Each structure stands twice: as structure tokens, then as C-alpha cells.
UniProtKB/TrEMBL annotation:
Recorded superkingdom: Bacteria
Name this polypeptide is given: ABC transporter ATP-binding protein
Keyword annotations from UniProtKB, A to Z: ATP-binding, Nucleotide-binding, Transport
ABC transporter domain: residues covered: 4-228
One protein family per Pfam: ABC_tran
Gene Ontology molecular functions: ATP binding; ATP hydrolysis activity
Lineage of producing organism: Bacteria, Bacillati, Bacillota, Bacilli, Bacillales
Family matches, as PROSITE patterns: ABC_TRANSPORTER_1, ABC_TRANSPORTER_2
UniProt keyword Metal-binding, yes or no: no
SUPFAM superfamilies registered for this protein in UniProt: P-loop containing nucleoside triphosphate hydrolases
């Protein structure tokens, strides 16, 4: 089976809103897949299901053949980056990145080494001791990405991570993310309503339409560079 599989997924919220109807597709390991579509077409709902934050009303979502909730309980294989960086203001950059590792126990020394590695990867090595309020929006997002990467997830979920950033910062972070994806061999699921962003980043684009929440088509993007 596919690494991430949507099996005829439907989602009706308790309010009566149908967010998704019969969404059926599979994603291979190592793909960078964007959910692209207008506001309200169910992109976030689909992503939150893969994160185990939302249950399907019909059908099922599986990651590596298992329920997402179980994968999250049993491993560090799934990480989530939201539009807001959601950093703890009373913790330094380093301690924000370490937090999820800390919660899972193990050696603090190893956690610190790993946190430093990912902070270096996102260009924040010199800001480890800073506090979130001292950082720009782009830097906060970098910390958020580093925190997600620290657990070495097999699957990185991102919900409009760059939407709140200015154009220049967004372009910089897009390039950095591409670089990280190529090096780390992760599978990425990325939500955006920005066509340019989807084309720039993805190896596959899941185009969604709001009639409501259907998968219109899956586009394979030929990458302009080799995967390393
Ligand atoms: P199954 O377990 O049903 O054989 P998978 O778990 O591998 O299928 O994937 C879920 C569904 O995705 C499949 O039932 C299939 O219809 C669909 N699918 C198969 N190949 C592709 C593909 N290349 N791209 C998108 N969807 C696919
Ligand atoms: P998108 O991410 O494409 O903007 P969403 O998944 O956020 O779409 O929303 C899909 C539909 O479901 C919308 O009509 C939205 O109003 C509705 N919706 C989203 N979350 C909830 C919720 N928690 N309760 C009720 N309705 C919701």
C-alpha cells in the first residue's frame, strides 16, 4: 500500500458542514505533496486527519498502514507545522526545539545535540539562547520547522506555514524547505492556496475543489533538479 492512503474519506462536522466527500488517493514515501485549492475546500481538514487530530466520518486515513493516532503514540514519525509558530515565550529557541524530544524522555545530551543540528540547518545557530519575542516572523517559523525536524519524522505536515510571512522571507523559506526535503528524504504534506508555491515545491499536487471538498485531480510535477 501507499505510505499515506486516503480510502474514500468523507468528513461531516458536527455543525452539519461536509468538509470532504469521497477523497481517495495514495502517496508514496519521499513525495512532497501539496493540497491546493480555494479556501474552505477541506485542505486543513485532510491534513488534520493525517495528524490524528480529526476523525473521518466515513472511509479511513492510514499512515504506513496504521491509524495516525497510533503512529503518533508509538513513534516520532509524524510532525506538524502550523501557520502560527506556536512557540513557548518563556523558553529559549533551543529549549523550544528540545521540548518535544524532552517529553519523550531519553538522554538530554543527545536531545541538545540534535536540536543544535536542526537549528544550524535552518540558519539559527546563533540564536539558540534568544527568546521568541526577540525573533522576526520568519525566524519564528524557522524555529517551528526546526522543532518539527528534531524528531527526524518520516512525515512532515505543514498547514500554510508561510502564509503570514512577507514575500522575500517566504521565498527564502521555500528554498530552505526544498533543500531540507531533498537532503532528509522525508515525505511532506503541504497545504497551500497559492498555485505558485505548490508548483515550486511539490513533486505531486492534489488539486481540490469545493463542491464540497473533493479531490479534482493529482498532478505529477517533473522536478527541475535531481533528488539527492
Ligand atoms: P489499497 O490498499 O487500496 O490497494 P493503497 O493503500 O496503496 O491502496 O492506496 C490507496 C488508494 O489510492 C488505492 O486504493 C488507489 O485507488 C489509489 N491510488 C493508487 N495508485 C495511486 C497513485 N499513483 N496516485 C494516487 N492514488 C493512487
Ligand atoms: P481549507 O483548509 O481548504 O480552507 P477547511 O478544512 O479549513 O478548508 O474547512 C473545510 C470546511 O469545513 C469549511 O466549510 C469550514 O468552514 C468547515 N470547518 C472546518 N473546521 C471546522 C470545524 N472544526 N467545525 C465545523 N466546521 C469546520
Amino acid at each position: 500500500g501507499h505510505f499515506v492512503a486516503f480510502h474514500h474519506v468523507g468528513k461531516i462536522y458536527s455543525t452539519g458542514t461536509t468538509a470532504l466527500a469521497d477523497v481517495h488517493f495514495g502517496i508514496g514515501e519521499g513525495d512532497f505533496v501539496s493540497f491546493l485549492g480555494p479556501s474552505g475546500c477541506g485542505k486543513s481538514t485532510a491534513l488534520r486527519m493525517v495528524a490524528g487530530l480529526e476523525e473521518a466520518s466515513s472511509g479511513s486515513v492510514l499512515v504506513g498502514g496504521k491509524e495516525p493516532k497510533r503512529v503518533i503514540r508509538e513513534s516520532n514519525d509524524i510532525a506538524f507545522v502550523f501557520q502560527e509558530a506556536n512557540l513557548l515565550p518563556w523558553r529559549t529557541v533551543l529549549d523550544n526545539v528540545i521540548l518535544p524530544l524532552e517529553l519523550r524522555g531519553g538522554s538530554m545530551k543527545e536531545h541538545r545535540t540534535e536540536a543544535k543540528r536542526v537549528l544550524e540547518m535552518v540558519g539559527l545557530k546563533d540564536y539558540m539562547k534568544a527568546y521568541p519575542r526577540q525573533l522576526s516572523g520568519g525566524m519564528k517559523m524557522r524555529v517551528s520547522i526546526a522543532r518539527a525536524l528534531a524528531a527526524k519524522p518520516k512525515l512532515l505536515l505543514m498547514d500554510e506555514p508561510f502564509a503570514a510571512l512577507d514575500e522575500i522571507t517566504r521565498q527564502t523559506l521555500q528554498m530552505e524547505l526544498l533543500d531540507i526535503w531533498r537532503r532528509e528524504k522525508m515525505t511532506v504534506l503541504f497545504v497551500t492556496h497559492n498555485v505558485f508555491e505548490a508548483v515550486l515545491l511539490s513533486s505531486r499536487i492534489a488539486v481540490m475543489s469545493a463542491r464540497p471538498g473533493r479531490l479534482s485531480t493529482m498532478i505529477d510535477v517533473e522536478l527541475p533538479y535531481p533528488r539527492t
